[in-house]
């Protein structure tokens, strides 16, 4: 997934002003980047977004790439241009039939300079514009191109930018002296609070003074009136340096949550509604997931059941042993990468049985997304640390949001609650130091806190190399209590329910050491959560566990971002 941006202004701006905006889209990919301006700068580089040659201009398009087709090279970086060097494009998405389109264009004499699918767009428009004006060329592109695209086109000597969207996100921000088009609103955060979101198959003509939107209805482009959204901005952590990706990603969580909610209410509204309709029309709903994503689905099941929607979840590698699938079944696959082999295996052949497939993924265009009838992106942004942090929190928030579409439950201020936990970093770091020598840690929770207990245990195992067990509080007395000795650390997730307090007493009576993650004023070692809302509490408690794990591992000098024997995307069975 790439980030694209286009800026057109009444006043001169600097090429590096656009690059600064592009930098905010870097979470979408950063293997190479490039820019073209209307005053002659055309620069591409391999690597993350850094500054370019200074250039004053009134129009520019730029791109930060996450390669899908063609290696990471300067030639494959965007913008791509037509043979005559007049038309420049930046593209986010995949043109599935680019080989076929390219063959046709090569036969007409076009010379391609890159291995990407995207370059075909520049040549396509060069060819079409020979015989028809822009709207006709766009109509034909919508008709013949298959796949996903958010595209911005800049033409030499033309004061307008042209943009279109199918599948990939695109938004427009209204500036005081111009307009900006970009993959998401974060590119123009702080510069304007007025945004317009592209819907499916929309095309816009944008200049420094205004814009016009059109919708492709299958045959032609029809003008559409667009609603202007007032965007609420929050401060971000931009510029702050971190020792590891894990801590960086932990700190990105409030923003990632805001981005998700925003997109569910805007760009992804249709997909969320389509998912709801599919859920309503299915007799059985079953999640399939592995690892951390499985823990998110346990919470998903909890939230859905509370909304009156029965759902189940099965670990992907055991799916076939434990679940019957027929034409009335909806399978919801949850995977950060969208490439988890166990999940893909579970999905194979399910459509042939008549089942519908939905998915929640973080990486767009992934195999699982492409296998799905409907897919929602969890918008966590690129996650580099092998251990999932922000992707888990966004999966949970997304599943809760979907459940709330059934019962109209209010959405709490998750970003705010996460920030409150992050502000306890020093306290958590001290606690972590005291746990460094632990051989085993137990985590107990009930109800919606049981999946959180399991998620914290998984983090402790994979990042701090401490044996940990996350379990239902009520299960302790059925066996595991035998392992509690004087000083054994037990993290208790306490949301004011009296039953869990009884379990805490059972541990204390055996000399165990209780560390409470709690919203009640329990005495002793405590990480305080300021909310009793279930989704807020579960998210905040998870973040507390992430920080604790991170600082234990840091104290032990472990390879936090790349723990031994593990990999981010598990593409084996
Ligand atoms: N398919 C294009 C490329 O590989 C765009 C990639 C993307 O948007 O992820 O350059």
How would you explain this protein's 3D organization?
The protein is an alpha/beta fold. It has three domains: 228 residues, Aminohydrolase, N-terminal nucleophile (Ntn) domain (Glutamine Phosphoribosylpyrophosphate, subunit 1, domain 1), CATH 3.60.20; 172 residues, Rossmann fold (3-Layer(aba) Sandwich), CATH 3.40.50.10490; 149 residues, Rossmann fold (3-Layer(aba) Sandwich). Helices cover 33% and strands 25% of the residues. The strands form four sheets. Strands 3-2-4-1-10-9-11-15 form an eight-stranded antiparallel beta sheet, with helices on one face. It has a seven-stranded antiparallel beta sheet with strand order 5-6-7-8-12-13-14. Helix 6 packs parallel to helix 12. It is elongated and about 85 Å long. It binds glutamic acid. Glutamic acid binds next to strand 6.
Brief sketch in words of this structure:
The protein is built from 17 helices and 25 strands.
Outline the fold blueprint.
Blueprint: E1 3-14, H1 15-23, E2 32-37, E3 42-46, E4 56-65, E5 80-81, E6 87-95, H2 98-107, H3 119-128, H4 134-144, E7 147-155, E8 161-166, E9 171-175, E10 178-182, E11 194-197, E12 202-206, E13 211-216, E14 221-224, E15 229-230, H5 245-251, H6 253-265, H7 269-281, E16 284-289, H8 291-306, E17 312-315, H9 319-322, E18 329-335, H10 341-347, E19 356-361, H11 367-371, E20 374-377, H12 390-407, H13 414-422, H14 425-433, E21 440-445, H15 449-464, E22 467-472, E23 489-494, H16 498-509, E24 513-518, E25 525-528, H17 534-555
Parallel strand pairs: 16-17, 16-18, 18-19, 19-20, 21-22, 21-23, 23-24, 24-25
Antiparallel strand pairs: 1-4, 1-10, 2-3, 2-4, 5-6, 6-7, 7-8, 8-12, 9-10, 9-11, 11-15, 12-13, 13-14
Helix pairs in contact: 2-3, 3-4, 6-12, 6-13, 8-12, 8-15, 12-17, 13-17, 14-17, 15-17
